[in-house]
Structures are given as C-alpha cells and as structure tokens.
Write a structure and sequence with these properties.
It is an enzyme of class 1 (oxidoreductase). The protein contains 15 helices and 23 strands. With 504 residues, the chain is α+β, with helices and mostly antiparallel strands. The protein has a 9-stranded mixed beta sheet with strand order 7-8-6-15-16-17-14-18-19, with helices on both faces. Strands 1, 2, 10, 11, 12, 13, 20 and 21 form an 8-stranded mixed beta sheet that branches. The chain has a two-stranded antiparallel ribbon with strand order 3-4.
Length: 504
C-alpha cells in the first residue's frame, strides 16, 4: 500500500532567520507558490536566531578584526570586510523594502543605531589597527571611520572601559558611529508572522526526521508531530534545510553527493551579562577586540550594549564551551551520530589538525566565574562580579571538510550545500550568517531556481535596488541606497568627516 503524501511546492525546515528570509523572498517573487515551514520548537527564532543566543551585531565588518588580515608584507587585506559590508547593506535594502510596505511596521523593534568600535592594546596591535584604519577609511564603504590612540578621546568613546585604566598602556580604537544592534530573534518572529498572514503553513512542534528523494525527483519529508504523536509524509519540489546545527544530520539523510565527506564540530558559547542601569548607561557601543591565540574566530571578545526584552543590557564574551549537542535543545548523541563512513577520515584528520583549538576549549571549560571576570576586567578594569551573571548562549556547528588546505579543514563562516539539480539546499556554519542572510538567499535562489530568475529580476530589483550591481565598485549607488535604507529603518548616516546625522 503506497503512502499518502501531502504535496506542496516548497518546504522550509526550521523557523529561524534563514527560513524566514527565504520564505519572505519567495512569497514576494512567487506569491502563488504553496510553502510549508516545519519547526521542532513551539515558536520561531528560538535557537541560533534568538537574541540571547547571538551577539546581535549587524555584521558589517566595521569592528570585527577577524575580517581583516595582516599580510606577510605588513599590509592589511580588507577584501573579506568589503564583501561582508556589502552583503549587510543588501540585507538592509530588503528590510527597508519590507518597512516601506509596512510588513515591518516598526523597524526599531529589531534594529537600532549603535556605534561599532575596534579596541586593541599593546604596541604591536596598535600598529596593526592603524594600518587597518588607513586601508579601510580610504574606501567609500567605510567612510567616516575614526581612529585614535589618545586617552581622553578613548575615555569619551568608551567611559566604562577607560575608567581606572593604566594611562601608560598603549591602546587605540577605531569607531564607526553608523553601526547597528540587530535583534535577529525579533526579526525572525516578524517575518514568520508575516508569512502566516500570507497563507504560509507554519507548523510548530513538528520535527522533520528524514528526507528522501523520490523517483520523480521530488523530495519526501517525514514529519513527527509532538502534540499528537502522528507521522505525516510531505512531498515537495524544493526543500530548504535551515535548521541550524540540525541541518547536517538531515543533509546526510538526503544522501546527495554534495553532502558527502562533510562533518561538523559543535562549539557552545557563554556570556557575562549586566543589567544594572547605572553601569549599562556608561557603555553605548559594540566594542570588539582580538581573539586569543588558538581561539576560533567566533570567540573574538566583545562588550556589547544590547536592547533585549525591552531592557538595556551589557553582554561580554563569548566564552567558548563544548557540548556534543548540535543545538541547545539537541541530543547528547548529535556529534557521534554525525560521524559516518564517508566523513570518518575527514573528522579524524580535523581532530589531529586542531589540537590547539581542543586545548583552548578545555581551558575555557575549566574557567571559574572569577577567571571569566578577570577576562572582562581587560575590558572593564573595575568590573565587580556581583554585577554580572553568566548565561549560556547558542550552539554553533563549524563545518569540517576536505579543501585545498588539506583534509579535515575546520571552516568558519556560512555555507550552502545544494544538490546538483537545485531541488534541495542546506545551510551550514555560523557567523556572519544572519547579517548576510539576504545575499545568501539570493545566491541560493540563483542556484536552485535558475529557470525563474529572469522572470523574477524586476521584482528582485524592486526588493533590492542594487541587485546585479556591485556596491563596492559603485560608491554613488552605495551612497544613494545608504540614505534610503537609513530613512526607512530609522538609522543614522555618517559622512566622510565622521559626523553622524539622522534622516528622520
């Protein structure tokens, strides 16, 4: 007896920011397509997209030092920073399109202006930051960036961090006032609510536990409903696996050749949190510094002003941890069950190559709260442990694969793995993911729906005016769109002198 399939056009697995973004974009270009979303938890944006599970940095490479690399000749390569900055601007264009259509009625619910600062200590790092500033400030995308190594100026920029600091210590910072704080959890909820209003079938407390290709090249998605225990078999022409750390297992079950040999390494995070108004009021920025030697890029220390659950908050971290779970709500067997015959050698090679990372994670796990406070005091010299509490942030699964760099390379960043025919795609990896979600989904649509892209071009340009053009190479277009997006989203604009002004 054949199974009864519930047929649809598109299935999105996971109700995080990636599925929310792709679903919203598809509904704009193909409004008559039937879309279903399956989410294991009871509401949207509860895992990696949740505001407590990430730093909320609108990753635009304004302050993240790991996006700029010092070369052997001493020069600073800013190509990755340019790429990420452009992609964040593309996301802002799409969000402003939604705001102008009142899909997002109050942008300040999820995005707010906040300065981005890079802060370093020691003569060597001060020299690096100065060269980085010279390279970046020459490009229109980073105009308005300011640099200082003067104590009084730094005290004005970061009063909490400069209080009681040794004035003889070499320190420096760059500052971009037109940075942002983004609540990706709230953005996800806004987009998912909109999808439900446009007749997208969003089902919570439903777990996708298998994905299998059918003879007609469609995909069968097996779904378990936690509320009533029923099993359903859904069938779709296209499936997107956007379930964060849970994506790897489903990619493996799909058996597409492109997913072979890929492994994952879970890294958890913790933050120190302060919500005392008198302390929070002294720090109005996101301040990033350099990662410790041996630490993964996602462990770059930073002190962030956040607006979470209607409260001004300071977060410091992240401190790395380890759990074999691939999601905060995952299983302790996630890591071991992800090891398959086709990725065993890759995973083993990675273990041997990343001994320093393993050592770093062990050291981080063994830290007491007071030892973590000592790391915070490198940022805030007078920090009192009674004012700060430790919270567990999200799980991230870093990609492990064989590359030109060798077997078992641990890759940091976000990557889409798709079948050759484009009928299934899975998103793997971590930062800067959410900030660049719109660009990632444009690339996915180009790969998975090539036959429609010509028909969708006019609408895509309406949604994202720079579509098909390079903001890096077109500063006039960049400036024009910067103003329109800032106006729609209630953000600030910074001129070449560093002066910030509002368009509201």
């Amino acid at each position: 007896m054949s199974k009864e399939h519930i047929e649809t056009d598109v299935i999105l697995i996971g109700a995080g920011v990636m599925s929310a973004t792709l679903g919203t974009m598809l509904k704009e270009v193909a409004p008559y397509w039937n879309i279903k979303v399956f989410e294991k938890l009871d509401s949207a944006g509860k895992e990696s997209s949740n505001e407590w599970n990430n730093a909320g940095t609108g990753h635009a490479a304004l302050c993240e030092l790991n996006y700029t690399k010092e070369q052997e000749d001493g020069s600073v390569d800013i190509s990755k920073a340019l790429d990420i900055n452009e992609k964040f601007r593309v996301s802002q264009q799409f969000w402003s399109y939604l705001a102008n259509r009142n899909v997002i009625e109050s942008p300040s619910d999820f995005i707010r202006p906040l300065p981005h600062i890079s802060f370093v200590r020691g003569e060597r790092d001060v020299e690096f930051l100065s060269k980085r500033y010279e390279a970046m400030s020459e490009h229109p995308l980073f105009r308005g960036m300011q640099f200082t190594d003067q104590y009084e100026t730094l005290k004005n920029w970061m009063p909490l961090m400069m209080k009681d600091r040794d004035a003889n210590q070499p320190v420096a910072a760059t500052k971009v006032d037109a940075g942002t704080d983004v609540n990706f959890g709230e953005l996800t909820r806004l987009l998912m609510n909109h999808l439900e209003d446009t007749d997208v079938d969003v089902q919570y407390q439903t777990e996708v536990y298998d994905v299998e290709r059918q003879d007609d090249e469609s995909w069968e998605v097996k779904v378990r409903n936690f509320e009533n225990g029923t099993i359903e078999h859904h069938k779709a022409k296209f499936v997107f696996v956007g379930s964060g750390g849970g994506s790897l297992h489903l990619l493996q079950k799909s058996k597409i050749p492109e997913g072979r040999g890929i492994g994952g390494f879970p890294v958890s995070g913790l933050f120190l949190v302060c919500q005392k108004p008198d302390i929070v009021a002294q720090h109005d920025a996101k301040v990033y510094s350099k990662a410790p030697v041996g630490a993964p890029p996602m462990s770059v220390p930073h002190l962030d002003r956040r607006f979470i659950e209607n409260k001004e908050t300071l977060l410091f971290g992240p401190f790395a941890g380890f759990s074999p779970k691939f999601l905060k709500t995952g299983s302790m067997s996630d890591l071991i069950t992800s090891v398959k015959r086709d990725n065993l050698v890759t995973m083993s090679a990675s273990g041997l190559k990343n001994a320093s990372l393993t050592k770093y994670l062990i050291q981080q796990l063994l830290l007491s709260k007071e030892q973590r406070m000592e790391e915070l005091r490198e940022f805030v010299p007078e920090a009192d442990s009674e004012d700060w509490e430790l919270v567990v942030a999200g799980q991230r699964v870093q990609i492990i694969k064989d590359t030109e760099e060798g077997k078992g390379t641990l890759r940091f960043g976000t990557e889409v793995v798709s079948s050759e025919d484009g009928t299934l795609a899975a998103l793997l990896g971590a930062s800067p993911g959410a900030s660049t979600a719109v660009s990632i989904m444009l690339e996915l649509m180009d790969k998975c729906f090539p036959e429609y892209m010509g028909d969708w071009e006019e609408k895509l340009k309406d949604m994202i005016p720079s579509y098909g053009q390079s903001l890096i190479d077109n500063p006039e277009l960049m400036k024009e769109l910067e103003h329109s997006t800032a106006q729609a989203l209630g953000l600030d604009v910074q001129d070449s002198s560093g002066k910030v002004y509002s368009l509201q």
